[in-house]
Amino acid sequence: MKRTNLLVIAIAAALQSATLLAQQPSAMPGMDKQKHREMMPMHSKMMEMQKTQDAEIDKLLAEMNAATGEKRVDAIVAVINKLVEQRKTMHAEMAAHLDR
C-alpha cells in the first residue's frame, strides 16, 4: 500500500515538473519590445471587433430564446448565419495579417 502511494506521488511530482519545464519564460519569444508596441493598435482593434461581434450574437440569442414556433426556427437560422459570417470575417482578417 505504501509503495502504491509513493509511486502515485512520484508520478504526480514528475508530471508537475514536466509542466513547469515546458513553459516558456517569455510570452512572446523572439519578439522585441518595438515589434510588440507596433502590434498593440492592431490587437486593440481586434478586441473591439470581438466585442462588437459578441454583442451582435447576444442580441440574436436573446431574440432566439424569446421566439416560439416558426419564428424560433428563423431566429436559429439567423444565429447560425451570423456565426458563419463572423468566422469567415475572422479568417479573412487573419489571412490579410499573415500576408503582410
Task: Provide the descriptors you would attach to this structure in a database record.
100 residues, 3 helices, mainly alpha
Descriptive account of the structure:
This protein has 100 residues and is an all-alpha fold. It has a domain at 39-100. The protein has helices at 2-22, 33-66, 69-98. The longest helix is centred in the middle third of the chain and has 34 residues, at 33-66. The model has no long low-confidence stretch (mean pLDDT 82).
Radius of gyration: 23 Å
Low-confidence stretches: none
Distance between the termini: 61 Å
The secondary-structure class comes to: mainly alpha
Range of strand content: under 5%
Elements, N to C (H/E): HHH
Mean pLDDT: 82
Could you say which overall geometry the principal axes of the C-alpha atoms support? Answer: flat
| Number of strand segments | 0
Largest sheet: none
Helix content: over 70%
The number of helical segments is 3
Structure, briefly:
The chain has 100 residues and is an all-alpha fold. The chain has helices at 2-22, 33-66, 69-98.
Any chance you could write out the topology, listing elements then pairs?
Elements: H1 2-22, H2 33-66, H3 69-98
Helix pairs in contact: 2-3
